Amino acid sequence: MDNDTIDMNELAALIVEMGxxxxxxxxxxxxxxxxxxxxxxxxxxxxxxxxxxxxxxxxGWKDPRxxxxxxxxxxxxxxxxxxxxxxxxxxxxxxxxxxxxxxKSREAVNA
Length: 111
Fold this sequence. Notes:
Blueprint: E1 5-7, H1 8-18, E2 22-26, E3 31-36, E4 47-56, E5 62-67, E6 72-74, E7 84-85, H2 92-110
Helix pairs in contact: 1-2
């Protein structure tokens, strides 16, 4: 994998290690989206990130990837708020920490 590509499974695993549920799901048209935190009663999570693709599409949807140059993350709110837009490669652990901290702040507001 090249330096311009994000391994979305690795990103999800880093967030899980920090203490929040995170998973990559196929969200239609072969698109990969990372969801962080438990679903609320409306089906929304604390944060969403993407959009990516699957290196091995089809049954099982394996190896989700994303480009650093068009990767966005923020509230899972159908676009009501502006997402953070990544534009250059950076440390994946730092990205995971930023998404985790954002999700925890939303969790505190929703409590």
